[in-house]
Amino acid sequence: MSPLIDQLIEALRILPGVGPRSAQRMVLHLLEKNPEGGLNLANCLKATIEGVDHCKKCRNLTENDLCSICENPARNDTEICVVENPADVIAIEQAGGFRGRYFVLMGHLSPIDGIGPDDLGIEVLVENVKSGPVEEVILAVNLTVEGEATAHYISELLRPLNIIISRLAHGIPVGGELEYIDGSTIAHALEGRKKI
Amino acid sequence: MDFFTLKYGRLSAVARGARGQKKKVALQPFTPFVISLTGSGELKTLKNYEIYENPVCLLGDNLLIGLYVNELLVRLLGRFDPMVRLFDSYKTLVIRLSNKQGFSEQLLRCFEIDLLTDLGYGIVFDHEVSTGAAILEQKLYKYSLEGGFVPAPDVTDSNTVFQGKYLLAIGQGDFSLTSTRMAAKKIVRSALKPLLGDKPLHSRKLFIKPASGNQ
């Protein structure tokens, strides 16, 4: 095909899960069925990538210095929820019930992949806790080995500051049936059982 | 993804759809699996896997030690080089790490010494490699990766010069004295350093807490 089309197919392949055939299908669709939408996509991509950066306070993605949650005076300053990715903020916000602030690590500690504390902005988090009226830090990191290591590292750093450090509960999902749940999840659920 | 296997040593395989896997148990570090692989090249494809034994759960500082050990293995083991003895010591170490009270510094040092031995850089603690003379309790020795321990006139550098009695204790697996543990740590570190090259170990950063400065 034409060099321009080949270039666009190659460019689209940077997206996760997009191979040569899906990239080709997308390009042909844009060219034949929706050239206007394609131009709009190109403009939006350029504007978003150039305009969006990390929030100075919570490291979430935003085009301003501070994100909408950090700027909102109605949020509770005494609670910070630490998550791995911006998608986790969206998930918790959609679930509702949490009115505090966030801190987005943009990943987790993974020595094998070369990701250390400096890459996660942990010193910014410690500074936020020291300088604000924070009473509780909720570690809402994933329940993986790397998530566990990240939670442990952060909790050790925050321990001297005399605040409550909590971790999200882990166990049986809503609507889950015991019979189909794996052993380690049941073990966690038993260990973290609650009095009723 | 890297696997440490009993039959083939370390190997890398592509695990398609391993992330976000809902029905199967997630492929998590420190978990013993039985795996089947396909592919003729160096990079295999993971075809199937199931948990072999109950997964262990590492917590707190023991988890960080586990990550350090994994990073060491990934950095130092060549691919497709079977290491049955090391596989066993890794298994023992992980089980001990999962037991909150069961870990001792000695176990980690012994694992590091086993690793060095299996890589062909074994440390001789009871005699001088060049002369064959026995290590004497009261004498001082300097360590080098190529030449092992050689007599040293005095303590020029406490990081490389050690008293004979501590070397003998390490050789006999007696880590009861703090000085023995300190010496073992320094010796293992200096032996690992040239093998690791200029790239630092990322997991070591996790032990250095900026607030307290302690390890």
- Which sequence of strands runs across the widest sheet of chain A? 4-3-5-6
- Helical residues, percent of chain A: 40-55%
Number of domains of chain B: 2
Count of all domains of chain A: 2
Report the CATH C-level class of the largest domain in chain A: Alpha Beta
Using the CA coordinates, give the radius of gyration of chain A.
21 Å
> Structural class of the secondary elements of chain B?
alpha+beta
The best one-word shape of chain B is elongated
Keywords:
heterodimer, A: alpha/beta, Helicase, Ruva Protein, domain 3, Dna Topoisomerase Vi A Subunit, Chain: A, domain 2, 2 domains, 4-stranded parallel β-sheet, two-stranded antiparallel sheet, about 15% strand, B: about 220 residues, alpha+beta, de novo design (two linked rop proteins), 3-stranded antiparallel β-sheet, 6 helices, about 35% helix
Give a description of the structure.
The complex is a heterodimer of chains A (196) and B (215). Chain A is α/β, with parallel strands linked by helices. Chain A has two domains: 3-51, Helicase, Ruva Protein, domain 3; 61-167, Dna Topoisomerase Vi A Subunit, Chain: A, domain 2 (3-Layer(aba) Sandwich). Chain A has helices at residues 3-12, 20-32, 35-51, 68-71, 86-95, 122-131, 145-158, 183-191; strands at 53-54, 61-62, 76-83, 100-104, 136-139, 164-167. Chain A has a four-stranded parallel β-sheet. A two-stranded antiparallel ribbon of chain A has the order 1-2. In chain A, α2 (20-32) packs across α3. The longest helix of chain A is centred in the first third of the chain and has 17 residues, at 35-51. Chain A is globular and about 65 Å long. Residues 211-215 of chain B have low confidence and may be disordered. Chain B is elongated, with a radius of gyration of 20 Å. Chain B is α+β, with helices and mostly antiparallel strands and 215 residues long. Chain B is built from six helices and seven strands. Classes of the chains: A alpha/beta (196), B alpha+beta (215). Chain A binds chain B through residues 109, 111-112, 114-118, 123, 126, 144-145, 148-149, 152-153, 156-157, 160, 182-184, 187, and chain B through 2, 25-26, 28-30, 54-55, 57-61, 63-64, 66-68, 70-71, 74, 201-203, 205-206, 209-212.
